[in-house]
Amino acid sequence: MSEHLPITPDELVEEGIAAAEAGASIIHIHVRDPETGEPVSDLDLFREVASGIQAETDAIVQPTTGGGFNQTVEERFSVIPELQPEMASFNMGSMNFGLYPMAEKMDEFEYEWEREYLENTYENIVPNSFSTLHEAGSMFTEHGVHPELECYDVGHLHTAKHLYDRGVLEPPLRIQFVMGVLGGIAAESSHLDHMIETTERLFGDDASWSVIGAGKAQFPLGVEAVSRGGHVRVGLEDNLYLSPERMAESNAEQVEKIVDLAWSVAGREPATPAQVRGLFDTKGVENVGF
Question: Does the pTM exceed 0.85?
Answer without folding.
Answer: yes
